[in-house]
Amino acid sequence: MKGFQFAIFLSVVLLVYYLVNLYICHRGLQALPDGSPMRPWFRAVFLTLAFSYPAARILERIWLSPVSDVLTWVGSFWLGAMLYFFLIVLAIDLVRAIDFFIPFIPGALRPDEALRTYLLFGAVALTFTVLLAGHINAVRPQVRHLALTVNKPLVARETLRLAMVSDIHMGTLVGPRRTARMVRDINALEPDLILLAGDIVDEDLAPVLRFNLGESLRKLKAHMGVYGITGNHEYIGGAEAACRYLEEHGVTMLRDSAVLADGWLYIAGREDRDKPRFSGMPRVSLDTLLKDIDFSRPVILMDHQPFHLDKTARFPVDLSLSGHTHHGQMWPLNYITRAIYEISRGYRKIRNTHAYVSSGYGTWGPPVRTGNRPEIVLIELRFVR
User: Which fold has domain 142-383?
Assistant: First the structure.
């Protein structure tokens, strides 16, 4: 049954993908004059780009190689280009539709063959510029600082420096260089505790093994430890293998479990909410996860997908950490994530719980961010004596 549901889901995704590509290709060809020598080249390049990402996903499972790497990079950038070409063409067609019913475009500006060609080249130039700027932005993470007060007394200390990262998506696109840079940046913050809030690996574990990315994670330094949770991408690629690999490389994975770190701070981690869909097994309820916790001590809860944050706040949880949303990653998708999630990005206090949703460190799909900056979050918790 699950296999059938996945097949239906994949079929719908592929249908939408190719219909959008067909729409863009058709409108692009219309912008070129009949008999133009550019038309065959346009078709060839477009077909190559449109098929590169699906081909890369298939080839990665058969022959992980520099060829699959090139196809992955080309196809991933094309996903971003496809979004902006679709928006541009759709905007042009909406203007044309309005003008058809309510004429308002001056005659001199009505598109002829030359103007249509100029519009095509203008769309290509604009999309290329946006993707280039978005890629530069995507590989330049910022450190976001947050100072919070926890109304629980501690005898041992008054502050805690916590570094949190979500959605690293280690793999072909977030490889050795970016992973090593992330580790250096985190260590430079001199945190007491490091938390990885899901989607640490990007689905398939093979590129992570090939580039030996776990060796960078071994270098993370925090005297209270490094803890992680599963995200939906760990489950897409196989959560058991991913978690085993991360554990072998210095990350303590909290899978519907809680620990008392350093003898005074509880850290609880939920399995990703997509666990039932991929494994057929439910994740435990919050009541079960938190039932043995002494709430007179500080409590941090990690849950990758920021759904039902109000339910978390019904418990005496001091800090709730999530990721997953990427805050849309590419404008205007951030408007969609704002509509779906209670918090798409950033901080909010819900009852007595501090909640933070990170926009993430890496990217999924296009290695491009046009809606926000990637981030490492440094949270300084202050405790009341």
Answer: Purple Acid Phosphatase; chain A, domain 2 (3.60.21)
